[in-house]
């Protein structure tokens, strides 16, 4: 069985081309997964995703890691993993 890590939605950015970038982070804020979607496809976004370690990239900036860890706590307190967000 492949190891997975639960990552929580910490950021959603829209651009002027109708795309949305979703950022999911590990609870410690050390790693992230980013996904770009058409804004119209972003309606089925859930609060958390189970991801394999090879899907994650490191967050180099300590301030960003702390911000992501804080957002993970906030999101996890408010939502169940499968809740639409």
TrEMBL record:
Short name of one Pfam family for this protein? Answer: DUF7967
From the UniProt entry, list the residue stretches annotated as the region Disordered. 43-85
* Domain DUF7967 positions: 1-85
Ranges of compositional bias, category Basic and acidic residues: 62-85
Q: Which InterPro entries match?
A: DUF7967
Q: Which domain of life is it from?
A: Archaea
Please report the name of this protein according to its UniProt entry.
DUF7967 domain-containing protein
Q: What does the organism's lineage look like at the top?
A: Archaea, Methanobacteriati, Methanobacteriota, Stenosarchaea group, Halobacteria
